[in-house]
Amino acid sequence: MGYRAAVRLGTALAPFVGRFHPKLRAGTVARIEAGDRLLEWARWNRDPARPLAWFHAASVGEGLQAQSVLLAFRRLQPQCQVVYTHFSPSAAELARRMEADAVDYLPYDLPGPVDRLLHELDPYLLVFAKLDIWPELSTRAATSGCDVAIVAATVSPGSSRLRWPVRHYLEPGYRSITAAAAISPEDALRLERLGVPRDRIHVLGDPRFDSVVNRVREVPDDESLLHLGRGAPTLVAGSTWPADESVLLGAFRRLRQRQPDARLIVVPHDPTPDHLVGLERTARAEGLPLPVRLSAAEQPAPLLVVDRMGVLATLYGAGTMAFVGGGFGRSGLHSVLEPAAWGVPVLFGPYWRNSRDAALLVDAGAAVALPHDRSAARALTEQWATWIEDDESRQLQGSRARNVVEQNVGASERSAALLASLISARLPRRSLPEARSGRP
Q1: Fewer CB atoms near the end CB (10 Å): N or C, the chain?
Q2: Strand pairing partners for 264?
């Protein structure tokens, strides 16, 4: 009851809070009719003779993990219809590229909307990515006879889900899991603490490694974004926040005194107009060249600022080295795998220990974590200069980064095989309920 009350309160407050938060407002508006759109798809397009798998991933990171598993699953179970839902507006573009029969926002996790969707879609399999379990959806799906799975399952040691009262509210959802594909043995133990039965947990690795390798392979050699880093040593700083940019721009000012031809490409995590103006103001205060925005760039620039979304994974390939944002704040370090897949060494801030991927790179000598005191900018300058002046060392660390990624591929196929076995075990299955037979 406490969980339902919290969801109903959040649903009621979302339109008001959205007035002050554009991203939340976009998601609230898009979600209003999401359930109706999915119901309409089911009424006209759901084939009772085919099983249906429903994949859900909250945002872009989880979506990339789900995408690689979904592709492998479709090869193993081509007869399945697939529905894909997401929660965050930032994932809408990725969702449109999914190989799914229907794509939309996930409606709010309330009994009425959930029951209607489950009745009309009649999924054989409900698949969550990473950790985004919704208790009403998962428990009601399990009660209806649908298998519930989670892939790329990972639980950070400091996750609020492990603490009361969040753990209490979410536990029924985790107990409904039929099969969980955990990233590591440590994640498996934490999943068990959340309520997933031990005998249903399988350690299969992280599908994100497959996803980033595939994305790099798909970038053509003549991609125009790659030219932005050619002709001079270039550091690509991805998913940055103001705290990251303050350190980066201070280090870049020092570096230019030593390496005047060095370039910096900054890709803010959220390139809103206010963020971009603030970044340009910081650059002026440091005495740096006027930043050139990607939308106006006709050629490489000493300081380039990316003012649109969706290009970071490709832009890492333009760099000779990379910086990943989020490690100077409490929002969490962003993905370090994209630059690693390109074979470039990686830098990030001091708050990285909740990132398993960052730990793998540090242990392999493929990444450098900066200190958390005022010496961070100076340490960044020194490492940046070292990679420029010692090309052999830089290439060695980049090669180690690429090796970390390649050594961990294969989780998508293993996870897809687990999901396919659940589908196969349920065939043949009953036809759809008679109540739905009146569809045109």
Answers
A1: C
A2: 235, 303
Q: What is the pLDDT of residue 91?
A: 76
Taking Cα atoms as reference points, which of 250, 253, 281, 248 lies closest to residue 265?
A: 248
Structure tokens at 142: 């399990």
Distance, in Å, from the CA atom of 62 to the CA atom of 253, rounded to the nearest integer, reads 36
Q: Sorting pLDDT into bands at 50, 70 and 90, what band is 169?
A: confident
Mean pLDDT of 233-245: 96
Which pLDDT value is given to residue 436? 45
213 contacts 409 by C-beta, under 8 angstroms: yes
Q: Which residues of 95-112 are buried (b: 16+ CB within 10 A; e: fewer)?
A: beebebbbbbbbbbbeee
Q: Is the pLDDT of residue 18 over 50?
A: no
Instruction: Quote the pLDDT of residue 16.
Output: 47
Query: 6-19 b/e with 16+ CB inside 10 Å = b?
Result: ebeeeeeebeeebe
- Give the pLDDT of residue 203: 98
Please tell me whether residue 239 adopts helix, strand or coil conformation.
strand
Helical residues (DSSP H) of 265-311, grouped into ranges: 273-285
The residue among 415 and 27 whose pLDDT is bigger is 415
What domains can be seen in the chain, in order of their start residue?
Answer: 2-207+410-430 (3.40.50.11720), 217-406 (3.40.50.2000)
Q: What pLDDT is recorded for position 19?
A: 52
Angstrom CA distances, 373 to 353, 370, 378, 379, stand at: 17, 9, 10, 10
Which of 367, 366, 363, 383 lies closest to 375 in space, CA to CA?
A: 383
Nearest Cα residue to 179 out of 207, 150, 139: 150
* CA atoms 218, 338, 319, 365: torsion sign: negative
The tens digit of pLDDT for each residue in 286-305 reads: 999 999 999 998 889 999 99
Residue 432 confidence (pLDDT) above 80: no
- Under DSSP, is residue 347 helix (H, G, I), strand (E, B) or coil? strand
Closest CA to 379 of 234, 251, 237: 251
